[in-house]
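A quick aside before the break. I want you to see a complete sequence-to-structure record at least once, exactly as it would be stored in a machine-readable document. Don't worry about memorizing anything.
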Amino acid sequence: PMLVKNSCPLSGISDVYNGILVNGNAIGDVMFYGRGAGKLPTASAVVSDIIEIAMYLDHPHTTTVWDRLDEADILPADKLPSRWYLRFDKKPNHCLCMLDAEVLEDSEDCYAVVTGKVNLLEIGITVSEPFVAMRVL
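That is the input. The structure line, written in tokens, reads:
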């Protein structure tokens, strides 16, 4: 899950729909959305796949081959600088000032912030430490 602004195209997705926003260097932002998993959408997709396989049983099978990427070509998601919504059950012992964080709540049983763009692992905060940690788009 991710928090998005109302102006983001993903904010209009609701109910059983899922969506992703992809940014390509040549095309810019592209959004894909559709019905998510569920009894009827899943059954429809499975039946569609079976029909397509049956239609092409007599045709030669070709496969798409992808070149293997070096590890350096892919950056793990937890190392991507992002804005974060962090909510702790109490104020954390370490300083969040380096996160350029906006404090949303500071009470006895809840401390919530939205950070600037940071890599939480680099500054020593693990995603399992906060009560809630969600990327903010």
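Two observations worth writing down. The CA atoms of residues 99 and 120 lie 9 Å apart. The radius of gyration is 21 Å. We'll return to this after the break.
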